[in-house]
Amino acid sequence: MLVKEVMTSPAITVPARTTIKEGLRLLDGHGVTALPVTDSQGHILGIVSEADLLRNAVRHDVRTHMIPDEQGDDHPSRVEDVMSTLTMTVTGDTDLSDAVDLLTSTAVKSLPVVDGGRVVGVISRSDIVHVLARDDEKICAEIDELLRTAGLECDVDVDGGAVFLEHLEDPAQWRVAEVLAGSVHGVISVQVSNKPTPGRTSRR
């Protein structure tokens, strides 16, 4: 799968001069964990996360302290004051597995998707979880229809996102069937064989 097939688009973006308060409202209202920060042309400038916006946003409650609060009122007020400019990005044609590597090997929960430097979407951990959690029956039906349209007749079975394609006699068609099945949302792996696997039923 490619990032563009899973990403959320259009992305919810903010200008650098957006207030911290408005940034928090956008996170809350759209149920996202980060916002790409863009210029007037839509080019990526950075990204601001929940942690960035929350940091220093909540004042100490003076009722919990025996001494006066010395926190003061000199706090960041704009997104540009707290955003990260060292932004990892991907393109729509990035392999989804590469995006997953970035999202699981770092603390980053979402990645801006760019095209020519402009933000065209966002891919998040929750986007990928949603795709992988897709029902096996729906995956099976979509693969079955896709293969039939391509003129490939075989048994299709899906178990926990793992796809098994059986009774495809022509080895020359195996790779085509594997690629087609692997393009369907929710597929974790694909196994092609011309022999049925014992103990598992398939649909034709």
Give an overview of the whole structure:
The structure is a single chain. The chain has 204 residues and is of the alpha/beta class. The chain folds into 2 domains: 3-131, CBS-domain (Roll), CATH 3.10.580; 136-192, Histidine-containing Protein, Chain: A (2-Layer Sandwich), CATH 3.30.1340. The protein has 7 helices and 8 strands, in the order βαββαααββααββαβ. It has helices at 20-30, 50-54, 79-82, 96-105, 125-132, 136-149, 174-182, and strands at residues 14-15, 34-38, 44-49, 110-115, 118-124, 155-159, 162-166, 189-192. The strands form 3 sheets. It has a 3-stranded mixed β-sheet. It is elongated. The relative contact order is 0.15. Mean pLDDT is 87; it is low at 198-204.
Order of helices and strands: EHEEHHHEEHHEEHE
CATH hierarchy: architecture of the largest domain: Roll
Helix content: 25-40%
Strand content: 15-25%
Give the overall silhouette: elongated
Average pLDDT, rounded to a whole number, is: 87
